Every structure is written in structure tokens, then in C-alpha cells.
Amino acid sequence: MLCERLGISRTPLREAIKLLATEGLVRLLPHRGAQVAPLEARRLADTLEVMGAMEALAGELACRQASAAQLAGIRALHDEMLAKYAARDLAGYFRCNQAIHLKIVEAGGNPVLAGIYRQLNANVLRARYMANLSQERWDAAMREHEAIMTALEARDAQRLTRLLREHLALKLAAVLNAVEKAA
Amino acid sequence: MLCERLGISRTPLREAIKLLATEGLVRLLPHRGAQVAPLEARRLADTLEVMGAMEALAGELACRQASAAQLAGIRALHDEMLAKYAARDLAGYFRCNQAIHLKIVEAGGNPVLAGIYRQLNANVLRARYMANLSQERWDAAMREHEAIMTALEARDAQRLTRLLREHLALKLAAVLNAVEKAA
DNA sequence: TTTTTGCATTTTGCATGCAAAAATTAGAGC
DNA sequence: GCTCTAATTTTTGCATGCAAAATGCAAAAA
Hints:
2 copies of one chain form a homodimer. Chain A has a two-stranded antiparallel sheet with strand order 1-2. In chain A, 79% of the residues lie in helices and 4% in strands. By secondary structure, chain A is mainly alpha-helical. The A-B interface holds A 11, 15, 18-19, 22, 43, 46-47, 49-50, 53-54, 56-57, 61, 110-113, 116, 120 and B 11, 15, 18-19, 22, 43, 46-47, 49-50, 53-54, 56-57, 61, 110-113, 116, 120. The structure holds a DNA duplex.
């Protein structure tokens, strides 16, 4: 059915499904086919936990070795995000937010780290867009980002890692809350 | 050639190579085929850095929630490793060492974390066996493991994460040294 | 009603053919 | 000896056929 729908044959479809499975987006049930990986709160929490540790490490590295240009790029995104926040543009805000976190991770200059982070991020994206966060949470998130930005520009690794960890822990709580409400 | 050698056809061979590529063991060069991923010191260092962060997180989690049985299992492996050390059985020591680190990560109870750790570990295994460590490094590693074991059994998360980080940083130095000598 | 048994279907894994795109090699010309 | 072009080979991606193994279902038996 999928072959027909997508206009391709089984071989490439199977390869694609296998790839999605290694990325954790699809689940392979032995001899029973494949299904979209269910959004399990537990797994989501586990993933965010790991992402928190990765961001913390990346932040530490970024403080040590990010170039001025990289910091400026992150600052630009931050300011753009601020504008989206002021305009109550949630979708735009999410995009900027994602981009900022990704840039911070990249600024760490560790491609292995960045690769894993990206993959994990793909897994929580679905859930993240569900997190139609409250005004209070949004306000708080902006304050957190402000502090993160300041720490990064000051290259204060210790403070930055703490802030990133806290930020992600709060995001985790928000996302879990949203997922459970949806379930 | 590989098809002949392995007695299989192209499709499964190509799937296997692709899988190895996603695991980072093989490198795909666009339109120029595949090759065993070269042992780059830089990439190795990056990987170990990430593994360090993962172990630290896992250790923290393990202190909070590892069962007594899990701790006992790790202790048993630790004692076995001690015996291998006493007997100067390097291969056996490596095996125990690997198993201990894996068990600690598993004791964290975060399957996402454990999965990524395993994958990263597969990437450094080749290099690790090259690290024909010196007697001094071996002695030091044993002392470090002793301290790690103690902190874990005391469920002292802060100390454990620090020790794990240090232990891995030293291992990184040793491995890098070995790789560079080989190159 | 539950269990067993047999059958049809599905899943999996592999083999092979084909065509387009890119790289490599060979050869002609300077 | 070098450069540029053309021919050949590789790589890549896809289509399709086939067979073994596992599953799900339904009829028969307990």
C-alpha cells in the first residue's frame, strides 16, 4: 500500500523504514511489521534527560572555544526569538528556540556530540510542538534564555551548564505535562 | 568482490554497509564507495568526550535508582577485574572493564542513554585495544576504579560523576597517545 | 468454552536486472 | 610531457521475483 502511495518499490521503502527505525521514529515489531513509534512519556523523558547532559557539555565546550562570530550568530537568533515572543508568534518562537539550542550545541565544536543531539532532537520534535505552553511558562522560558545568553557571552561555563540543565528540566516537565494531557 | 567473498548478493551487502555507516564504523564516500572509517584521533577524542558526559549522567542516575542487586553485580565484576589485574591478564581486564562501564550506564535506568553509549563504545573499541597501557597507567586505572566503586556503593553522585569524568579524561589521554604512536 | 491443528497471508531476507550519474581511464591533439 | 575529450567502468538507486519463516485465523477436537 505504501509502495503504491509513494510510487516506489519495496526495496527503497524498506530501506527508508529501517533508517527511520534506527533513528527511533519508527518501531519494528518482529514479523509484525513497522509502526510509528508511539509517543511514550517515559522515553521522552529519558531522551530529554540525555539532551540535557549533551547541552551542558556543549555549553561548557562552547564557552571555551566558540568563536566571536558564532556567539554573534546565537545572539542574533536570540534577538529574533525575542521579537517573535513580543509578537506572540509561537511557531516562529519555536523555530528560533530550536535553532538557538542547535547552534549552542554546534558551537561546542564536537561533531559527534552535535550529531547525536540532532538525532535525539528529531525524536522529541513531535512532542515539542504538542507542548502548547502556557503564558507563564513562555515568560519563564524567555527569562531563562536571557540568562543563558548572558552566561554564554560571558563564557561562564559553570553557570551556563547549570542554566541549560535547569532550562531543559523545566522544558521536560512542560512537555511531559502536555503529553499526559493528550493521552 | 565482497559479494563473492561473503557469498551473498549486493542488496544485503549494501544494507549491511549502510548500517555500519550509520554506526560510524564505515565511511561512505559519495560515488567513490565505502571504506573502513579511519581512526582519527580527533574524532576519537570527541567520542570519548561525549561518553564521559554520558557516564557522568548515568552515574548520577545510578546513585539515585540502582537496585542493590545491580550494585552487587557491578561489585562482582569489579572484584573479577581485580583478579585479572593481579594475574596480569590484560585481555580479561579489558573485558571486565568494558562490562563495568556498561553496567554502570545501564544502572542509570535510561535506555536511550544506554543505547547511545553502546553505539559510541563500538566506535572506540578498536582504538581501545590498541591502548596497550603502561604499567603505571594500569595501576592508576585500578585505583580510579576502586574510588569509583566506593562512590557508587555510597551513592555519592557528586563524587562519582567527578571520578568518572576524570577517569575517562585520563583514558582519553592514554588512547590518544597510543593512536598517535601508531600513526 | 478452550485448545489444537492446518492453511493462507504477511513478513523477511536475498538474488538479480536495469538505468542514470559520476568517476576513472584511454587516447588524441597540442 | 601535458591537456582535453571520449569511452569505459563504478557507483547508486530502484524494480521485481522468490523462498523460508512466522503470524493470524478458522475449523475441528477436546
